[in-house]
User: What shape does this take?
Amino acid sequence: MVRRTRKEFTPYNGYKDRSFNIKWATAFAMEELTQGIEQNHQVAIQVNKKYPQMTTREIDQILYQSFNRQIPVAIQVNESDKNGHIVNEICGYFTGETLPYGIRLNQQWIAWQSIRHIRLLPKQKWSQIEDS
Assistant: This one.
């Protein structure tokens, strides 16, 4: 049987090391903090291109093509986030539902006056769609 000696550490220059439990909890919290900082950084550097304002006629033509050919569209709205960046585009299929105040895309109503730009998206083949 091997006899183990007790490990004693003498403080060097008045430094007293923290216990393992404190180190572990701090390291875990630091990892979460650095991940959060990285995510915030990715959001902050993301800048969406500001497309030119389209006329109602141009918007109607794109929506007509989208509805007849079942092609998805991307709509950029005239809104910005708290940092002044253009918000992400709203993408989906136009089902033909319109009212005097707006259109419906992905179960969401978008006001006519808030539409800045609309474009057709390339249609994906069923084999390229990822499972979510």
User: Anything to note?
Assistant: The beta strands are 73-77, 90-92, 94-99, 102-105, 108-111, 115-120. The chain is about 30% helix and 20% strand. Residues 20-45 form the longest helix (26 residues).
